[in-house]
Amino acid sequence: MATQEEVFKNLVSHCKEYGFVFPSSEIYDGLGAVYDYGQNGVELKNNIKQYWWAAMTKLHENIVGIDAAIFMHPTTWKASGHVDAFNDPLIDNRDSKKRYRADVLIEDQIAKYDEKIQKEVDKAHKRFGDSFDEQMFRQTNPRVLEHQQKRDALHERYSKAMNDNNLDELKQIILDEGIVCPISGTRNWTDVRQFNLMFSTEMGSTADGAMKIYLRPETAQGIFVNYLNVQKTGRMKVPFGIAQIGKAFRNEIVARQFVFRMREFEQMEMQFFVRPGEEMKWFEYWKQFRLKWHKALGLGDEKYRFHDHEKLAHYANAATDIEFLMPFGFKEVEGIHSRTNFDLSQHAKYSGKKIEYFDPELNTSYTPYVIETSIGVDRMFLSVMCSAYKEEQLEGGDTRVVLALPAVLAPVKACIMPLVKKDGLPEKAREVMNLLRFDFNIQYDEKDSIGKRYRRQDAIGTPFCITIDHDTLNDNCVTVRSRDTMQQVRIPIDELHEMIRKEVDMTNLLRKLI
Ligand code: GAP
């Protein structure tokens, strides 16, 4: 049986082989942590975005969308705090010349203690079988207690160093823990220094007059700076929200796990403006709504969990992540943050504009508080792919790779296949295709055996394969083969549209949310 790591590696290859994700500019050997979406990837990604957009805007009459520019006035990033504080602590190994995030090296070390503890627990579980009392074992086993004590001490020291922004202490922890570079195997480390994650470029035609600007590291600021525009032109009443989907850029140092951490990625963000004092009520509402949105896809309720932030940013009064069980563990897919009135106040201060709301019911003006929901499209894409990818053993020793995607997200909804390339079957197949293509993404395939054609569609997650055979010319019926059950049924051509619609209509999914 393949390990999770092997399955993930296979999934990455599968994404390339079947046109979901390619390394960027691959003919020049690619560009680190930048990826392109292929012909199937873009369809899946668009479906995810459509689901999010409809759930946020169509289902909430007080939420509207915008599409702000990627380039923004540079003072935006001064006001938001990104120029001064959007940093990662970096350390270089002098022998391998490789650069690492100091915090990640230490977090990996903490994870190693956790793994050691888990190993002891698993070993004991095997030894004692059903009578094993894990809680008791964790509280009394000397080896577990020793690892736990070291882990907790390291965690405390690390948290303090991060809170105090103490870079010397971060380096000392790395030295004291004996952390080595995975490439050179040495402890020949440089000092730790802060590295800003924003990409910058210059705007303007002359070198002298050029202005340093940044590629936005989050889409949220495009919403904050447009708060007044949208509130006034849309005559929006608090509480209301502004939603946006768009690219964001971060010069990530430790970029790994495929599209999980990229340098150019896409976010779907929504800022919900509320009365001061009502933010916790809305924070709870958005936590529950966003989790429902994820679960409605049917990827498995047990694969989600909330992870509340222990350490809050100075402007936040609550924050949680929705984590998804990837093959490499539970990982953040979405963040839900209660950001107080920090951003709007900062933009008011730096722009000199009054950014407030006059509440007619309270007969007073205030700076609204904000609840933010922020989800990465690419991480969502990855979570869907990870749960859909299956290497199945079939009866008779055969295997198949199938993407059991939620039908509503599948790039192609049905493939039309004439049994043979003659006898008028291709013409009939094209007729059937014309009945469906205006409402669904449909493919046509007449090459190779039917079996091979089924496998190709399984590999890209197509829910239905529709075969046109000689009988079709007489009885106007077709054979429909289901991706998941591999069962075949014969149905009249007239019923095809409704059968597909029932399975792939996004309305069914959206109805689960209200
Ligand atoms: N406006 C808040 C914000 O940007 P964040 O936690 O930094 O918060 C939100 O990012 C989401 O964006 C994350 O939960 C993740 O899904 C996605 N994201 C962040 N950095 C990413 C990266 N380097 N590659 C892919 N997705 C990323």
Give a structural overview.
By secondary structure, the chain is of the alpha+beta class. It folds into 3 domains: 1-72 and 197-389, Bira Bifunctional Protein, Domain 2 (BirA Bifunctional Protein, domain 2, 2-Layer Sandwich); 87-194, Herpes Virus-1, CATH 3.30.40.230; 402-511, 3-Layer(aba) Sandwich (Rossmann fold), CATH 3.40.50.800. It is built from 18 helices and 23 strands. The strands form 7 sheets. A 7-stranded mixed β-sheet has the order 3-9-10-16-13-12-11. Strands 20-19-21-22-23 form a 5-stranded mixed β-sheet, with helices on both faces. A 3-stranded antiparallel β-sheet has the order 5-4-6. A hairpin with a 5-residue loop joins strand 22 and strand 23 (488-492). Helix 2 crosses helix 13 and helix 5 packs antiparallel against helix 7 (142-163). The structure holds glycyl-adenosine-5'-phosphate (GAP).
List keywords for this structure.
514 residues; alpha+beta; BirA Bifunctional Protein, domain 2; five-stranded mixed beta sheet; 18 helices; binds glycyl-adenosine-5'-phosphate
Give the % helix: 25-40%
The major sheet is characterized as: 7 strands, mixed
User: Could you please say which CATH topology of the largest domain applies here?
Assistant: BirA Bifunctional Protein, domain 2
Tally of DSSP helical segments: 18
Small molecules bound in the structure, each named once: glycyl-adenosine-5'-phosphate
| Beta-strand percent range | 15-25%
What is the CA–CA distance across the termini?
41 Å
Q: What radius of gyration results from the CA coordinates?
A: 27 Å
Q: What would the principal axes of the Cα set say about the shape?
A: globular
CATH architecture of the largest domain: 2-Layer Sandwich
